[in-house]
Amino acid sequence: MIHPVRVHTLDVGAQSIQLDGGQVVRALTRVEATPYGLHYANDVPDHPHLTHVEAHLIPALDLVVSHFTDRPGSPHPSRFYLDMATITVKAEVWTIRDLYLDVVIRLDGQPFLHDADEYAAAVVEGHLTPDELSRAVLSAQRVVNGLFAHNNDLEAWLASLGIHLEWWRLSPAATMQR
């Protein structure tokens, strides 16, 4: 049995993000509107492997692009983590529905599809609407094809779409591989 869809609510006015339907609330350390969506950051002091999350919400691509600052010795370092997600905006409140499928870009730049098992279980258990089923697969396909066409360079692919990501805080491990 798989967990229900994870819903995160980011309230720009309140400078907070509610994770998993409000079970966890964290203060945002920074948030800015961008031409393509929203860029935010928050600390995660209670996480066993991470200290900081910085993310770009890109609603037109059904995509959340995250960079995690890992604690020393983290078992799963990555350069970027891409969640396939529906993103809706009402005034200053952004709602993110995680569609289970993810693409992880490793430190060596190689992408891999992650959590396909969770996606399959969510489909079988009826956690996703027919529209979400389609959007998850199409978003993942767009990401993989875009990366492939740009030698696995996330920023080059997004730049080809007119999306230029800026990062406030990248860990040394992520920048070493550039």
Automatic annotation (TrEMBL):
Transmembrane segments: none annotated. Pfam families: DUF402. Residues 31-151 form the DUF402 domain. Coiled coil: none annotated. InterPro entries: DUF402, FomD-like_sf. SUPFAM superfamilies: FomD-like (SSF159234). This is DUF402 domain-containing protein. It comes from Deinococcus ruber.
